[in-house]
Specification:
about 350 residues
Length: about 350
């Protein structure tokens, strides 16, 4: 327990440092004193600096924090319910369903409406977010319906993967039929970004995630029991099928919200639960859930900082950074854990 306390405290300190670094460093250099003045409401000598902090960097920090935590918790839930270390937030095709919803709106808007959605600015961004949520929730409802009729986790996992392949196939057809400009807009959305959420959208996104993440912690006890196996959990009074449905719904809604606002962010949900298990050395979800959320938030802030480091024009896609940053870290952690076990 003492190890958990000190590691949690260290994680919080690291997150604060990363948040400050994200606020201070970028293509435009802003003095520390001015950043503090802007954040405390005292204003700054430059209106441009104020807009950069309040309209760009601060929303990115908050978005990366809650998105990283949400995807990581979702990945932990999926790995627990399927007892599969390769399970992630996109394992049941929910991310693909979100992408399919966006594809219908983006790739068909120019062909049917005569005006490409990518040219509509804020209205287009809202339409994309709504389409992503509808697509993800449609697949999620289908998965929930299937989970009530399928007993084995492996069968449900395979069906989810097949749904993802079907969604990708439909997206491929839509890309083939769509104008080049719409295809480019869809590809850019698919690369993922923490920078497209701002203003009222950012506030709504953060509020939704701050509600959903604490609710996911209510499933800690049944998740611990499910680690023991379905038969043992059932003997302890757990309705396995209903609990599995609750966990899938919780994980799916987290993925749907994050994907709607940030695009499909890869790797974080798959890798961070392994990183948290290795660092905190526990399988108890009472400790592992908050540890995973903190590690996910920290990794997302690291990726956001690298994506918009000085020297890059604009910001790199987050998916171009997550795997490059996270894969070596996770590989080294797992390798060291295997060596210590031997």
């Amino acid at each position: 327990m003492r190890r958990f306390f000190w590691l949690t405290l260290l994680s919080c300190v690291v997150i604060i440092i990363l948040a400050v670094v994200n606020l201070l460093i970028g293509t435009v250099r802003i003095p520390v004193a001015d950043v503090c003045s802007i954040l405390t409401g005292m204003g700054s000598q430059s209106e441009i600096w104020t807009n950069i902090i309040l309209s760009s960097r601060l929303p990115q920090v908050l978005t990366a924090f809650v998105a990283g935590a949400g995807l990581s918790v979702s990945g932990l839930q999926m790995q627990t319910v399927f007892r599969n270390p390769l399970a992630g937030p996109s394992v049941l095709g929910i991310s693909n369903g979100s992408a399919l919803g966006v594809a219908f709106v983006v790739l068909l808007s120019g062909k049917l409406g005569g005006v490409a959605l990518s040219r509509l600015g804020y209205l287009g961004d809202v339409a994309i977010s709504v389409a992503a949520i509808i697509g993800a929730l449609a697949v999620l409802m289908l998965i929930v319906w299937i989970s009530q009729r399928v007993k084995g986790n492996v069968t449900l996992l395979i069906i989810g993967v097949m749904l993802g392949y079907m969604a990708n196939a439909i997206i491929g057809v839509l890309k083939f039929l769509a104008p080049e400009e719409d295809v480019k807009a869809f590809v850019v959305w698919g690369l993922g970004s923490f920078s497209r959420v701002s203003g009222d959208q950012m506030v709504l996104f953060v509020v939704l995630m701050c509600i959903l993440l604490p609710l996911s912690f209510l499933l800690v006890k049944p998740m611990n029991l499910m680690l023991l196996g379905d038969r043992y959990a059932a003997n302890l009074g757990i309705n396995v099928r209903r609990t599995r449905m609750y966990i899938i719904v919780c994980s799916g809604v987290l993925v749907a919200i994050v994907t709607a606002y940030c695009g499909p962010i890869m790797f974080i949900g798959l890798a961070v639960p392994h990183l948290a298990r290795a660092l905190f050395r526990t399988s108890d979800h009472r400790l592992l859930m908050p540890a995973t959320a903190l590690c996910g938030a920290a990794l997302a802030l690291v990726c956001n900082f690298i994506a918009r480091m000085p020297g890059f024009e604009g910001a790199l896609p987050v998916n171009s950074v997550t795997a490059l940053v996270g894969a070596p870290v996770i590989a080294s952690v797992l390798f060291r854990r295997r060596q210590s076990a031997e």
